[in-house]
Each structure stands twice: as C-alpha cells, then as structure tokens.
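Thread: "does anyone have the structure for this chain?"

Original post by V.I.:
We have the sequence but no experimental structure in hand. Need at least a predicted one for the grant figures.
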Amino acid sequence: MFSRVASSAVLLVFVLPWTAITGAADYFAISSMARQVQSANWPSVQGTLIRSEVEAVRSNKSTTYGLKVAYTYSVDGQRYEGSRYRFAAWRSGDAGYAEELVVRYPLGTSIPVYYRPGQPSEAVLQAGLGSSELFLLMVLLPFNLVALWLGAMVGWAWKPEPPLLSTFFREDGSECVTLDEQWTAAWVFLAMGSSALACVVLGGLAGGFNAPLPVGVGAWGAVIACGVLAGLWSRARRKAGHYDLRLHTQTRSLSLPPFSGRKHRLDVRWRDVRSLRVEPQVRTPQGQVTRYHLTLERALSGGGVSQEAIASFIRQEQAEALARWLRTHLKVGEAAPGEQRSA
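Reply from O.Q.:
Generated one for you, tokens below.
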C-alpha cells in the first residue's frame, strides 16, 4: 500500500502542473473557438482599414510574424475602432503567411466588420469557425494526450490490484502469459499525437491555418483515422499473440516476445536456460525503485551466455510470480548472489 501511495505522489508531482497548464491552454482555445462560432450570427457593418501590416515579434531564438490591423466602424451612430481579425490569430515563423493576410486586407479599403450584439465594441473581420481554430486544438492535442496518460497512470495505481499471474492456453497447446497490457492505448495516443503534429507542420507550410473550414475538418479526420487504425492494428497483434510469452511443453521451448530492443520473437530451449532473476531497473532521485525487470540467462550454442530481458513490471510481486511460474516449468533456479548484476 505504501509503495502505491508513494508512486501516486511521484506521479502527481508531474500530473498536476502539466494538467493545470494544459487545462489553461484548453480553456483559452475553447473559449476563443466558442466566440468565433458565435460570430457567424453577428450583424455586420462596413468599416475602413486604417492599419494593415506585418508584425514581427522577436524572441531570443526566433522571430514570428502575424497580421496587425486596425479598423473603424460605426454602429447606431457611435464610432468604434477594432484591432482583431479573428479571436484565435496565428503567428508563424514564415513572414509569407502574414504578408498574404496584408494583401487580403489592404490599407484604406472598405470591409465588412462583424460586431457582437449588445456589445458593439467587440468585433472581428472574419466571422465563423475556420481552420485556424481547428489547428489550434490540434496543437494542444498531444499535450492533452500526455495529460490523459499521466492521469490514467495515477488511476491505475489506485485500482484493485490484478492477479499476479494469469495464464491461458492457445490452440497450439502452448501455455501463455500476455505482457504489456497497455500497449493499445499507447499506440493510439502515439499515432494521434504524432499525426496531429505532422498536420500542424504541413498546415503551417502550406498555409492551412488560414484555409477554408473543410481543410481543418479533413486534417482532424486524418488524425482520428490514424488513431483508429493504430488501435485496430494493436488489437490485431494482441489477438495474434504478439505480446504473449509462450511456454511450449511438447517442444520444450520458451518463446519470448519482442521487448527492450528485441525486435522479433526469440525461441529458447528449456535446457539452455541457466537462471531467471528479477532486477530493479529504474529509481527515482529519492532512491525509490519504480520498475522491475525479469531477466533470463541462457547458454549459447557457441559457448558463453546471453542475458535476455523478458518483461518489465511496476509491481515486484508480479515479476516474482512470473519468475516462479517459469522456474517451476523450466526446472531452473535463481541466479546466485555472485552472478546478480547491479541494477
């Protein structure tokens, strides 16, 4: 119980700040998006552009460019001045993006200005939802996925502990243990996060931030499709036994799934297994062990030995249970103290 509380406390140190910052960014993006959607129903009047230029903002390492506008308009005889062309205005490292907007809004021209009913001082030049709002949400998607993953890890730490070991038999008669149960969610999150970043980069290079709404909708469709395909692919691999540790009694062999740099399955004869050991692998700065690796030592046909990582566990009891199950079937023991490698 103490280890679970300690693990949750360590996670919360990262979860709370990350979630707070991401939540604040989400609030800004969603509120801007909501106002932009509402502006589609706002009345409009003709206004005059009194300023339209490229604005460069320089920082220590880069310079970003955006559109800086000012316009005047009158509502019910009252004159107003506005400076917003959208609620969520993008800035880009490419000056061409801002220059295109300057061409679209030349100085001195008469343009429609959309103002908020009952509060005419709030106005925009572009009304209604566009790709820029959808791309802004896409920028935030990877950060939200990380926040969800961190929150899920905290939740998993407080869930009722699953059985230490759950085995089943496949049609070929092998007794199996499925490892890495969380891979499907990880693949979905990775696919959606990476495809979102790719769409943002490609959209920025192609001027998609200022493109019509269907461009943003199509980009989101691509991101969602990547997540769905990744989930289906991962589930198919699990169903096919890609993550299974297989114990073949008839052939007296052990089949290890891909793990820790091992890209393909590795079949090991029982008689070649010399020992199994559980090793602490990851420690926090405070010295707390957070993961345990189960490692197999096997004899090579040409002489010598090889160390093969089997799986990694958060709970030491789970790693020990799998080690005991394997030792019982393989008739091997634990590595002698002198053979234990330092973690």
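V.I.: this helps a lot. The chain has three domains: 2-24+132-239, 43-126, 251-339.
O.Q.: and The chain has six helices and 14 strands.
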